[in-house]
Design goal:
It is built from 6 helices and 12 strands. Strands 8-7-11-9-10 form a 5-stranded mixed beta sheet. A 3-stranded antiparallel beta sheet has the order 3-2-6. The chain starts with a strand and ends in a 5-residue tail after the last strand. Helices cover 18% and strands 29% of the residues.
Length: 238
């Protein structure tokens, strides 16, 4: 009987993954070789605020200056309405808080001299983006400020190890038309093009790589695969 040692080979299954190329300058991107980044201005760190729009199941805070009895919190019902003393049922769905405050002031003038009303959106359920696919925590996430694709994925606690960076889709409905935008997250990270804006009711889907998932399943077996195998061959007289 003779003993044949087979060399290790399992690590070859996981090798060959090249690193991402460095970013290069383009019309929309300036790459600084010495790292001397300019200091951002006020408008750079405080982008233009996006107007909040009220929707069903949102919670509003209504403050009528000097009249505590009329100050309240209101939950918007499924039809986009709230009910308020002296005002009655009020349509608020699809309006901004400032539009609602002006409408309440208009209706209160019948009972109150020069009313001053402020309306704040305390909790928003309607202004949310759906994140699905190869992210760590899929779900609904609120859209606030200047929401972008990378910020949305960060809200979902980032990508899984099997995420496919070049297979990211944003689904959006405008009017009666549905759109699907295809994005390469790896290219966005490298600065090849701008991080796209995400809006309420968008659906973000991150693709999954079957091969990457397969390598994840194989990884725990690598110590076994790379251990030299001892094969006993029966001498056959050759």
């Amino acid at each position: 009987m003779r003993i044949l040692l087979l060399p290790a080979f399992g690590l070859a299954l996981l090798s060959g993954c090249a690193g991402n190329p460095p970013p290069v300058s383009s019309a929309d991107l300036t790459v600084l070789q010495d790292g001397g980044m300019p200091v951002p201005g006020r408008t750079d760190v405080m982008p233009e605020a996006r107007q909040a729009v009220i929707g069903p199941l949102d919670k509003l805070g209504i403050d009528v200056y000097g009249i505590s009895e009329l100050s309240m919190q209101a939950l918007v019902d499924g039809a986009g309405q709230i009910s308020m003393p002296l005002v009655g049922v009020l349509e608020v769905g699809g309006k901004t808080p400032s539009e609602v405050s002006r409408e309440i002031e208009r209706q209160l003038r019948t009972y109150v001299r020069d009313p001053s009303v402020s309306v704040n959106l305390l909790e928003s359920v309607s202004q949310a983006v759906t994140v699905d696919g190869a992210v760590i925590e899929p779900g609904l996430y609120p859209v606030s400020g200047n929401m972008t694709l990378m910020r949305t994925i960060a809200s979902a606690k980032g990508l899984t190890e099997s995420a496919k960076l070049d297979d990211v889709v944003i689904l959006r409905t405008v009017g009666d038309q549905r759109y699907a935008g295809l994005y390469n997250l790896g290219a966005i990270r490298r600065g090849a093009y701008a991080d796209p804006t995400v809006y309420a009711n968008d659906v973000v889907i991150v693709g999954d790589s079957p091969m990457q998932r397969f390598l994840q399943n194989v990884a725990p077996l690598v110590p076994l695969v790379t251990t030299p195998l001892i094969v006993l061959l029966q001498r056959n007289g050759n």
